[in-house]
Amino acid sequence: MSGNDIREGFFEECEDLLEAISDGFAAMARGQRDSETLNAVFRAVHSIKGGAGAFNLDTLVEFAHKFEGVLDAVRSDQLKVDDVVLRLFHRAGDRLADLVALARDGQIANPADNAALVGELAALIDDDDGAADEAAAAAFVPVTFSLDLFGPADEAGPVRHVIRFTPHRALYTTGNDPALLFQALARLGDLEVSADLSRVPPLSQLEWDDPCIDWTLTLNTEADEAAVRDVFDFVDGLCDLEIVQEGAAPAVFLPPLIEAPPLLVPEIPADDPAPPVAPRLGPVPADPMPEAPAAVQQRATIRVDLERVDRLINLVGELVINQAMLTQSISEVKLPPGNRVEVSLDQLKRLSSEVQERIMAIRAQPVKPLFQRMARIAREAGQAAGKTIYFRTFGDATEVDKTVVERLGDPLTHMIRNAVDHGIESPEKRLTAGKPETGTVVLSAAHRSGRVVIELTDDGAGIDRPKVREIAIRKGLISADKELTDNEIDNLLFLPGFSTKTEVSNLSGRGVGMDVVKSEIQNLGGRVSFGSRPGFGTTVTISLPLTLAVLEGMVVEANGETFILPTTALQETVQADPASIHRIGTDGLFLSIRGGHIPILDLGVCLGLQDRPSDLKGRVLLLLENSSGGRTALAVDRVVDQREVVIKGLEGNYGHVPGIAAATILGDGRIALILDTDELASAMAAEPDPIPQRLAAAGG
Amino acid sequence: MSAVAEPIAVTHREIVSFRVAGQDFCIDIGSVREIRGWTATTVLPHAPDYIRGVMNLRGAVLPVVDLSARLGFGTTEPSERHVVIIVTIGSKTVGMLVDAVSDILSAPTDDFQPTPDVVSDKAKAFVEAVLSVEDRLIRLIELERIMPTSLGIVK
To answer: Of A342, A428, A532, A684, which residue has the fewest beta carbons closer than 10 angstroms?
Structure first.
């Protein structure tokens, strides 16, 4: 393992840890504030700190340390978690995630950026210390005692720690360097290092990989023992460690955050969640770190290079094709019915398609990390808009193709900002409407009939349809006398450049609208739609294919070549009927259907396979809707079949081909190209006046 | 200017030689992945005339270059006797349609001579060096120049 691998491993681990933190806070928000939940968060923050220390990510370490301190105060019941504290924790968690991201990208975090948050966190403990002290004082502790405990302890001056450090072989083989540990110690105070060479054998007997040097370190520091032990956190179990403190009163060793009662009652109850580090003189067991109960959930997972999975997918695709070819050759032999060859072949077919399905599933990932990111977006959007938002998620475990998860981030972010900004009313308005002051936004994911459905629901005011209509008329998107159904009005929001906000808001209005969301979702082979009840809220529904590796398509023929047309864009297929086809100019052909006029494109011409459109007689027209709502009719020779095809990229070995999205391999091993209908349609600039045209079509 | 002019530690170069339009060409054996018989390709729209189309190589989609068309000898009418050499060019894997593969040779590096100036510009652009073997002249193809340079705007 190279240093880089270890570093990468750390950041991968951080993702899991940040997820655990976010999980923990979400559980707390639901009212689950037991010590187990808290400990999980604490451990995660601590592990990030520990790992960051090993890579000298000082800002991250420092921030995590402060955060950990506050969490520790909660653990020791010094601080009560209320909604205000929890919100601050959320923000601290977000900041921690930011710092990790900065560190991963090799950027230097500015410690000053943390200052405000650190201040707020610190204030939390101080305030609460005061409160706790008062409460304690009222109950049974003289106020002066608390001063004894907290005042002098902090100003006790340097303490001498004598550390005896005996590295095991494993410490070296795992790439740790004692010198780095010593440097970290030296940062805590004055350090003296002496090596005990008595165990070093003569050179002739020296085992090159057997450690034989023991170290005695004398550290004068104001830091407590826990801080000293922190330094050795990463080599825990890889060395023998003894820390002895000299020349200070026992009380000094109490970490300042430990509450008073355990001191007064020396017998610590066994189930105390945070056993105080009572006078620890002499050798102590080398487990000073937060206890890691066996209850920690261990997911049995492995990290696999995505390329390996993709190669496997390719190979299995080839296997399925080979099996199809074999089936075809055997059927040509015309064996008697019920023969063993065909029975076995059937089994092979079932097996290979199951193997294919299973391998596709490897690329699937739970939407949870994505949803957690969205929780943050909702929080920040609520804060910026001055609205309190209760964000809930359902179906976190729903699995979607990795690429889908990655590419859903932007559209979802936009939708959530929209929901918070435009959907949820201001607290005053909500109260007048008889709703709770806090707006609720729910993000859910579920598998439904072979697709993944993601829904974003808010309990806001719903779509203001009269207003949407008015704006659409003002912008010339529809004529004033046009009658539209509710659904049609909602769909106006997907038109490019449509925005109901007159002023551009900081959050959602940045010149991009739902049209961008729609095109992003369509690029993923999905569909998006609105549902809304005035006064009760809005639901945006996204329906996505389970995997990007497979696409549902129509197999069509043109110019003797076979093409695949994704069904997501397809609305209907019609036989070319001369009565409904009109000619404008020399080559401008239009299809009149239900009151709409749709331009006809000849696929062969679009792809440059022929110069002039062929006669439409006997051909098939495919009615397509592109992502901006425009419609075109694509003329092809024949529709062969509708089936799922495996997507194969063209860009890797060749490059982008206009009008072509990708390729696939047909059952006979030949390649068919998958059409990019949007590009085909936009390549034809003959659309005279797209908007009225589109609405005329939509109204039909 | 050519690779031959640079000092190379290896004294021999292994090459695969093949015929296109009655002339002998060769490429470095290191870039050859495999050699297959001709199978029908799928036409690639808006592609230059020397791109025959795409083929299926065990699940991967590869473009096939008609080397004869690329070198300016006119397009090939491929038959079952034609051969596709699968080569790696940078990160891309590409098929090259040629008439026949003739030989695998090991030639001393010094035997590769700069391309004579007499040849036409078009062919010279793709020929990196020439090699004389017995009475034959084998032209060393510069693979990097075979594929269209600006794939973003294939016309």
So the answer is: A428
